[in-house]
Structures are given as structure tokens and as C-alpha cells.
Amino acid sequence: MATPIPARRAFSFLRIAIALQTLTIFLQAVSSGLLMTSPYGETLHSVGARVMYGASMLYVLAAVLAWKPGGGPSRPVLHASGFLVLASVQVAVGIAHLPSVHLPLGVLMFGLSLLALARR
Is 108 in contact with 28 (CB distance < 8 Å)? Predict the structure, then answer.
């Protein structure tokens, strides 16, 4: 029989996952500046996009772990899933080279991630 994860521990993992996601989005903003000014900026931004997407998936995992075995609310799972959808759209428009959508969406994602972090 599996023992339930204490709610405090599950929520701290959720907080760490959101903080990591917020940090990776911020680093993407920094690397986008490097993208325009240095030869290695494109590589850095591309690698950062993969890390940011992975951080979004970690956020979903942390939200599910805080909800299901920890007995927490289900709302963070919806927020994390919605954020993963936004990250998927962000990656798609980045690959399509649509900066008129990519940049504002990045700003929106950073703001939403900060909001989620402030709520935890």
C-alpha cells in the first residue's frame, strides 16, 4: 500500500516547479536579446526553449502529484495544463518565425508564471 505524500511536501515541490518555470522563461527573454546580438544566441535560445518546455511538463507533474496523492486542490492541474498548451503554442510560433505572436506570448507566459508563483 502506497503512503500518501504530505501536503506540505507536495506543495513545496509545486512551488519549486513553478519557480523553475518562471526562471527558464526569464532566461528565454535574456537569450532572445542574445539571439539578436551574438552568433551563439540562436543556439542558446533553442536549447532554452527545450528546457522551458521541460519545466512546463515538470509543473504539470508537480501539480498532479500535489493534487492526487497529496489531496490538494485540482485547480493547479488545470493551470499547469493550460500553461503547457501555451508553451506548445509558443514553441510552434517560434519555429514558424512569427515574432509578432512569439514575443507577446512570451511576455504573457512570464506574467502568468509570476502570478502562479505569487499564489503559491
Answer: no
Report DSSP letters for the chain, one per residue: -PPPPPHHHHHHHHHHHHHHHHHHHHHHHHHHHHHHH-TTHHHHHHHHHHHHHHHHHHHHHHHHHHHTTT---SHHHHHHHHHHHHHHHHHHHHHTT-HHHHHHHHHHHHHHHHHHHHH-
Distance CA 1, CA 19 (A): 32
Q: Take residue 13 and report the three cell numbers written for it.
A: 515541490
One-letter amino acid of 38:
S
Q: In this structure, what C-alpha cell is assigned to residue 50? A: 527545450
Query: In this predicted model, what pLDDT tens digit does every residue of 9-65 receive, in sequence order?
Result: 556 889 999 999 999 999 999 999 998 899 888 999 999 999 999 999 999 999 998
Please tell me the pTM assigned to this model: 0.85
What number of residues does the chain have?
120
For residue 109, give every residue at least 6 positions away whose Cβ sits within 8 Å of its Cβ, in sequence order, or none: 25, 83, 86, 87, 90
